[in-house]
Design brief:
The protein is mainly α. It contains seven helices and two strands, in the order βαααααβαα.
Length: 131
């Protein structure tokens, strides 16, 4: 066994500041269908996959729309919010500079591949993370 030391970072909420952007886009999406999400319901959506999010929200709020159309609208709104406001978490870049010479660093995420590719193009994540 080697003495390799590795630190893994989660993407959303640790590396990049996304939670408020998802919430803003989701609020706009639901508003198109006349739905206001009760404060207590937001916790149902945090940490779930994109597939589960859209299925759960369509069922819970009885959204009568083609699933593919609803998902596309949601994805488009999220990308618009990301395009305008996406950034790394405060202090992240400084931390990476400090630890990069002592540790290998990796990135983990449940973010869908299409979204990760978009994020990588915008933020050059693959040039920051070795793994």
């Amino acid at each position: 066994m080697s003495n390799c030391r590795l630190i893994l970072f989660d993407l959303d909420g640790v590396t990049i500041n996304t939670e408020h952007l998802y919430a803003r886009a989701e609020t706009m999406l639901f508003a198109e269908y006349g739905v206001t999400i009760p404060d207590n319901d937001w916790k149902l959506f945090r940490g779930c996959s994109e597939e589960i999010f859209y299925s759960l929200s369509m069922d819970r709020y009885e959204i009568k729309e083609e699933r593919s159309v609803f998902m596309k609208k949601g994805r488009d709104l999220i990308l618009k919010e990301f395009e305008k406001h996406l950034d790394f978490m405060p202090g992240f870049k400084g931390l990476i500079k400090k630890i990069n010479k002592y540790y290998k660093i990796g990135l983990v995420t449940a973010t869908p591949e299409h979204m990760f590719r978009w994020l990588d193009k915008k933020l050059h994540l693959c040039s920051i993370f070795e793994h």
